[in-house]
Amino acid sequence: MRLKISLLKEPKHQELVSCVGWTTAEELYSCSDDHQIVKWNLLTSETSLIVKLPDDIYPIDLHWFPKSLGMKKQTQAESFVLTSSDGKFHLISKLGRVEKSVEAHCGAVLAGRWNYEGTALVTVGEDGQVKIWSKTGMLRSTLAQQGIPVYSVAWGPDSEKVLYTAGKQLIIKPLQPNAKVLQWKAHEGIILKVDWNSVNDLILSAGEDCKYKVWDSYGRVLYSSQPHEHPMTSVAWAPDGELFAVGSFHTLRLCDKTGWSYALEKPNTGSIFNITWSIDGTQIAGACGNGHVVFAHVVEQRWEWKNFQVTLTKRRTMQVRNVLNDAVDLLEFRDRVIKASLNHGHLVVSTSLQCYVFSTKNWNTPLIFDLKEGTVSLILQAERHFLLVDGGGIYLHSYEGRFISSPKFPGMRTDILNAQTVSLSNDTIAIKDKADEKIIFLFEASTGKPLGDGKLLSHKNEISEIALDQKGLTNDRKIAFIDKNRDLYITSVKRFGKEEQIIKLGTMVHTLAWCDSCNILCGLQDTRFTVWYYPNTIYVDREILPKTLYERDASEYSKNPHIVSFVGNQVTIRRADGSLVHVSISPYPAILHEYVSSSKWEDAVRLCRFVKEQSMWACLAAMAVANRDMITAEIAYAAIGEIDKVRYINAIKDLPSKESKMAHILMFSGNIQEAETVLLQGGLIYQAIQININLYNWERALELAVKYKTHVDTVLAYRQKFLETFGKQETNKRYLQYAEGLQIDWEKIKAKIEMEITKERDRSTSSHSVKNLGLKH
């Protein structure tokens, strides 16, 4: 990826340009110390003077009123705020009319920023004050006062906090009074510019110490650059939070959100005082010290999938290369390319007006449909369909171009969704809520309606990243997520009535990805790269989960690596310095998944015998129990030396009725409640009581006996025997109440139990004979 710079031969301004701001993706306003506001039209390459300001107004900062937020379009999108050296800020219309000038600070007003909703304006000045204003320019509050100038300011993603500079310090102050203020030393020199991204919640700062830094919202440094030759005069996040740009003297740099640099350009600009990204995130404009306005297009982005590599060579041209046979195809577009995604055998490209869907089998005839909104901010792909996110909503389309659904929820803000907060599978869409970060919304892909009974997935901590598995049946769909404590959890997506368990899979997990061809999960855990060959094991037999893992040392990936993709058995990891590392994992677990999904149990056993790896046998054991195939489970458990489980499986096989077998398989997986329900529904009351006695669940055993008016004496007899073994006295009031005046006769109880077992055996025999009769007829 690099920047394609365009700079006019002669500057349009006579003095330094202090600030620039985009109105659309093709139109920009620039303000200069020559008191002129100039409009640039990039389509026609024309410039026009909008207004000449009075000679005493030297502009410093410009910010356009936000155009839209989520579903709501604002009416006042045709105006901007301009701060100036005379201590005022000016509300100016698009046509250049000064609607209002407000005395704001003593000394220059160094920065002014609208919040995301357009309901408030923050200004900072040389007098060290931070002030909040209404959108009509009425003073609401003075948020802070300090003895040194505040050079830059930015709103937090929820518009409830403000970040501002104080010399070498950065300060985050919430708008609520008495809320905790976060302050830390960020640079060795005065901080000149800050920016805070609403999508990734990361902070940028640039200072006179010639460094730029990336911070999280808690003030922890994620990246610190090497010192440059000159002070860093400007920084700005791209709207989607994936890239940022840094400006300095004769320098423009394009960087990844983790800090490493994609491209460095040295245009003849003087210092770049202000950088702003176009709404669609494809180009940058910079306000230059020598009167120029520099434009830079982001080109040469790359997308890779299996043997295909797609490169954006120009604004409207892509090159597709098949590395197997070196075939090259050129794709031409009518408008500039904004976003693209290559996965699952399809390339999806959104331009400013249309969406193109190419199949990797045929690059000549794309499927094209028009977009409602031009600026697509995110494309996600699944095997059957893809998801587009823009300023207006979330839209699911099939690869044939057919619109499928558009999920919605109250307070939805599509402008802050990214690949970590939205996940897509063949049947489910998961979206992490921004208003309450402990909640995940789950939608049915085909209808866009809430999944199951409409209950939300709620966790005890804030969630930072979510991912749906890609294969298997809808009823078995799982979602994995990482919370703020860096713990990895897994839970089922289908939620009807009963509360699904959210189970912890791992700790200190920084990044995760599901395989695109089978349900294998990988993640980077502290200093280890871990692959969960069969994450479902946690629901089946938690004890053998460690045996189903593959782990290797991850220290070679350096600090803060990120998993880019997991295709087939190849995992791509991006290191902190931007280099890509490809890790191959064993192909055998994927083959095992394939055999099991087709119920080819004999082939699965044969594969495990061939590979001779404990992890394969452990996976097969868990898969067999999950699919109720106890013969395969017995072989697999024997192979990994779990003798106690082999004996239990043998005992299950000898049980007379299918209800009992089913219940004991459920108990094997730890689902006691479900096992009891199966027995009760099958009319096996005594067996339901017996499993509670075996588990020393005395309260429940007595409750069932009393409820069904049977075997109360049996429960009391076992309870008495239990107490005698440990030399204890009965203290439970219910047991004392029912035991009063009751003589326990073990002979009688044993006879009753024998009768129950015979009755169960007879039932299963009669059901078998009925089936056989039916077959004969």
From TrEMBL:
GO cellular component annotations of the record: 9+0 non-motile cilium; axoneme; centrosome; ciliary basal body; intraciliary transport particle B
Protein name: Intraflagellar transport protein 80 homolog
Subunit structure: Component of the IFT complex B, at least composed of IFT20, IFT22, IFT25, IFT27, IFT46, IFT52, TRAF3IP1/IFT54, IFT57, IFT74, IFT80, IFT81, and IFT88. Interacts with IFT88. Interacts with IFT57 and IFT70B.
Signal peptide: none
Domain (IFT80 second beta-propeller) ranges: 300-588
Start and stop residues of the WD repeats: 102-134, 184-216
Record gene name: Ift80
Parts forming coiled coils: none
GO biological process: apoptotic process; articular cartilage development; bone mineralization involved in bone maturation; canonical NF-kappaB signal transduction; cartilage homeostasis; endochondral ossification; establishment or maintenance of cell polarity; fibroblast growth factor receptor signaling pathway
Keywords: Cell projection, Cilium, Cytoplasm, Cytoskeleton, Repeat, WD repeat
Domain IFT80/172/WDR35 TPR: 616-761
Physiological role: Component of the intraflagellar transport (IFT) complex B, which is essential for the development and maintenance of motile and sensory cilia.
Localisation per UniProt entry: Cytoplasm, Cytoskeleton, Cilium axoneme; Cytoplasm, Cytoskeleton, Cilium basal body
Membrane spanning residue stretches: none
Lineage, opening ranks: Eukaryota, Metazoa, Chordata, Craniata, Vertebrata
